[in-house]
Design a protein that fits this description.
By secondary structure, this protein is an all-beta fold. It has no helices and five strands. A five-stranded antiparallel β-sheet has the order 4-3-2-1-5, with no helix packed on it. A hairpin with a 3-residue loop joins strand 3 (about 30-35) and strand 4 (about 40-45).
Length: about 60
């Protein structure tokens, strides 16, 4: 699972919520990933329920 590989500073997107925009991982601990999204602010994600995608530079 990609979520277990996420580290602070990595850029991600939530494919279920594209309107949130690009997010930067703040922390990843105990199955909870805190991400600061451009248009949604700081959101705590349950790693077991929401698969995030690592953003690749275009």
């Amino acid at each position: 699972m990609v979520n277990s590989l996420l580290e602070p500073g990595m850029l991600v997107r939530n494919p279920a919520r594209p309107d949130w925009g690009l997010g930067q991982v703040q922390s990843n601990a105990a199955g909870k990933i805190t991400v600061n999204f451009q248009h949604a602010g700081k959101v705590v994600i349950n790693a077991e329920q929401v698969p995030l995608e690592i953003d690749s530079p275009e």
